[in-house]
Design goal:
mainly alpha, two-stranded antiparallel ribbon
Length: 262
């Protein structure tokens, strides 16, 4: 029954992925070729990715992140990873506005308020692997009862470790009030709320990793370098500029050119 439920869940998730990508390519999905693929989030023993379970080890794909029962309901009912815990840094920039004293009450961009989790939402879920500290092969509910360490051989690569101090700001509210505050302080009107359905805020209108990235669909293929890119057409410079400019305004970002600061 659990396996059937897990299969159903996969179909639901893949259905949502299909809705995002008009030019849907099954070879870019986690389960393509029975798992014998190089999708970076395919951690099964069948994977050809840089990080995966040992040969002869765990061959289920979804279990490293999802479980039909016993998940972390504070993140998602089907989430199979423990909260990463610890303190995470904010984006380090002298020109950042969302952490200004008169804006942070609306943006909620802080790591010093016990009442506001940071990071939060899907970003916190991502950091349960990408913090570079949490064991990738340890889950809440393994395929066998009581088996929470399903692979002890995997370690996160330096490339896959995300430093929130130098990455794009995440886990902050970006609504009309915050947008207007940014425009007012910068003396312009360029900042806008995303209108493209492929560049999405979460249900609380927060910017998250999943605003730009789709964890189930691999877009990087050696020629196209943007990883797991949600706004994917196959033309890298167009997709990059189009994504950034959804919030920063037309012309703010150009491929290989000068860029506005956050």
């Amino acid at each position: 029954m659990e396996r059937l439920f897990a299969i159903f869940t996969v179909f639901v998730m893949l259905g949502s992925v299909h809705d995002v990508f008009a030019a849907y390519d099954v070879t870019r999905t986690l389960g393509y070729d029975s798992g014998a693929n190089a999708h970076p989030h395919n951690l099964s023993s069948s994977s050809n990715a840089n990080v995966h379970a040992a040969s002869g080890g765990e061959d289920e794909i979804c279990v490293f992140c999802h479980t039909p029962h016993g998940g972390d309901a504070s993140q998602s009912a089907l989430w199979n990873r423990a909260d990463p815990g610890g303190t995470f840094p904010l984006y380090n920039s002298g020109t950042l506005i969302i952490d200004d004293a008169d804006v942070v009450g609306n943006s909620k961009y802080t790591n010093s308020d016990a009442g506001i989790a940071y990071p939060n939402g899907t970003t916190r879920m991502c950091m349960s692997c990408h913090d570079g500290v949490t064991a990738i092969g340890t889950v809440l509910n393994g395929p066998n009862p009581g088996n929470v360490t399903i692979d002890s051989s995997m370690t996160m690569t330096a490339y896959g470790t995300i430093d929130l101090e130098v990455s794009h700001p995440v886990s902050f509210v970006y609504d009309e009030t915050v947008r207007d505050a940014i425009n007012s302080k910068k003396g312009g009107t360029s900042y806008q709320l995303p209108a493209n359905t492929k560049v999405v805020l979460d249900a609380q209108k927060r910017m998250q990793c999943t605003t730009c990235h789709e964890p189930h669909y691999d877009t990087a293929d050696g020629t196209y370098t943007l990883p797991l890119w949600r706004n994917f057409s196959g033309t890298e410079n167009t997709d990059y500029e189009g994504t950034c400019n959804e919030c920063h305004g037309a012309g703010a970002f150009s491929w290989g050119g000068a860029q506005t600061s956050h």
